[in-house]
Design brief:
Number of strands: 6
Largest sheet: 6 strands, mixed
CATH superfamily: HUPs
Number of helices: 9
Oligomer: single chain
Structural class: alpha/beta
Strand order of the largest sheet: 3-2-1-4-6-5
Helix content: 40-55%
């Protein structure tokens, strides 16, 4: 636990993720990352040099088989205010629009619903549970599918809602978060989405894991390369396609 909280504190301080008086919401999907994030931020709140308010929000997309009882009990145990925002995102994405690649639209609508709920509650910071392995899979997704060298940021700003988005777990590995969750017996909700484990992101996750088998230091070196902008050497002139 101490290593996870120590790294979280270091990341928060190095990247100035939290300001005094911030009113923060964790986007609680029910997955291992967001549940562990909520737990860690609650623990960090007790010794953080910067005071902040903390609560949790779940966007209920309208799937019939999404049971949030465990999340409600978890928040009650941590004494964290918890809101469930009911939406019809699932119906719009899968039935009305019949999206073949629904993830982008779904993410956009969920983020919009989160932003609207946060404005109503007077919250100004959204904490998301992305970790270092998400940095690599996002980089590969953009590299392979959009032709961009781009990945997740520690902190960004949503202009339309004036909300800061922070990712305090970005220096932690997925395995560290899994271990933290097991240590504290943090519940995990099963995703109701029919695309769960069938997305392009999952394909990239498997791709980078396969790369590590032939290049054991690949994960460390890829993260070093992404974080070291001084060593970035790319074409600066247009090349024919």
């Amino acid at each position: 636990m101490s290593s996870v909280l120590s790294q979280l504190r270091k990341t928060v301080q190095e990247h100035a993720l939290i300001k005094p008086g911030d009113r923060m919401a964790v986007g609680l999907s029910g997955g291992k990352d967001s549940m562990a994030m909520l737990h860690a931020l609650k623990k960090f709140q007790t010794f953080s040099p910067v005071p902040y308010h903390l609560e949790a929000i779940t966007i209920n997309m309208g799937f019939n088989n999404f049971d949030l009882n465990a999340a409600e009990q978890f928040c009650r145990h941590l004494d964290i205010p918890y809101s469930i925002i009911d939406t019809d995102i699932a119906e719009i994405v899968f039935k009305i629009r019949e999206e073949k690649n629904p993830c982008a639209l779904c993410a956009h609508m969920r983020r919009g619903a989160l932003g609207h709920a946060m404005i109503e509650k007077g919250l100004n910071v959204l904490a998301l549970g992305h970790h270092a392995d998400d940095v690599l899979s996002t980089f590969m997704l953009n590299f392979m599918y959009t032709g961009k060298l781009n990945t997740l940021e520690y902190k960004s700003h949503m202009d339309r809602t004036n909300i800061d988005v922070i990712r305090p777990f970005l220096d932690l590995s997925e395995s560290e978060i899994v271990g933290y969750g097991r240590m504290h017996k943090i519940p995990i909700l099963k995703s109701p989405c029919p695309m769960d484990r069938k997305t392009k992101r999952e394909t990239m996750n498997q791709l980078v894991k396969d790369l590590y088998k032939s290049a054991p230091h690949g994960r460390k070196n890829m993260l070093t390369a992404i974080r070291n902008e001084k060593q970035c050497n790319l074409f600066t002139h247009k090349m024919p396609l």
